[in-house]
Amino acid sequence: MYRYVLKRLAQYVPVLIGVSVIAFLLVHVLSGDPVRTMLGTGATEEQVEHVRTQLGLNAPLHVRYLSWLAGVLGGDFGRSIMSGESVSSLILTTLPRTLWLAFGAAVLSIGIGIPAGVVSAVHRYSKWDYGATLLAFGGISIPNFFLGIVLILLFAEHLAWLPSGGYVSPLADPVEGFRRLILPWIALGTALASIVMRMMRSSLLEVMNDQYIETATAKGLTRDLIRNKHAIANALIPTVTIVGLNVGYLLGGAIVIEEIFAIPGFGQLTLNAVLNRDFVVLQGVLLVTAFLFTSVNFIVDLVYAYLDPRITYE
């Protein structure tokens, strides 16, 4: 296990370097002219060239990349060309808010999807199965931005049970912080909960037909004991994979959800950087997103061994 962990950590380096190269090149190719965007159409050529020189944009592309990469390794992602603020500071300020949002949505989806999938598989073709399947298809079909708007209209405007938006850190004020995150969590996590439920149902039904289940039944073990002690753990393996792969969905969906619920998080930082063609912020955002996605999938691989002792990494 330790050799596997060290090997995977060593693979981080080329992956992140490759991502950094791709992010750097794509941003510079697609971002247009950020200096003209920053100065406006009335700027003269002399003003544009002066700002280019200040930002180091007149240097060759490979020199700019190496300079940026050296700063990243030292924890300096540069400064926003629009606001002049440190990109590292912007990321450290906004990222925890999005992580709270994504983490809560993931917990919600797992907490609802897995039990619902188990119940649906155990009571196959019953009213519980049909009801859970209907809700799952509805959850997958409804776009998260539309669900968010409906939740605001119902629970914030009509019933006045919860706030319609804004952000308060749960560490500063736990009650108000969680109240403001309930609706965003539901809006972002509903689709994933539906996917988890369907995956858990199909996986458990498949596992219950495996040969070792028949062997355990022949030895006299009860169906409930076999399901709870052996089948569910094995059925969780593909479900955990789905959750890991959907981390990108949660981070991407956070952009829309944060805009709807007025959460000043990582998603809004990304959106503003795109709209303003702030390539320095975009480079940092892309690199941090790749790091998060890679880290979660690494954790998912480790969870496999915990769920199924037969899996070895040596």
Overall description:
The protein has 314 residues and is mostly helical. The protein folds into 2 domains: 86 residues, no CATH class; 214 residues, MetI-like (MetI-like fold, Orthogonal Bundle). Helix content is 77%, strand content 0%. It has 13 helices and no strands. The longest helix is centred in the first third of the chain and has 36 residues. It is globular, with a radius of gyration of 24 Å. The mean pLDDT is 80.
What's this entry about, in short?
The chain is mostly helical.
Low-confidence blocks of residues: none
CATH superfamily of the largest domain: MetI-like
- Give the helices and strands as they follow along the chain: HHHHHHHHHHHHH
Quick one: overall form? Answer: globular
Number of helices: 13
Number of structural units classed as domains: 2
What structural class do you assign from the helix and strand content? mainly alpha
State the helicity in percent bands. Answer: over 70%
What does the largest sheet look like?
A: none
Instruction: Write down the Rg.
Output: 24 Å
Whole-number average pLDDT? Answer: 80
How many strand units?
Answer: 0
Strand percentage, roughly?
A: under 5%
CATH topology of the largest domain: MetI-like fold
Task: Give keywords.
mainly alpha, MetI-like fold, 13 helices
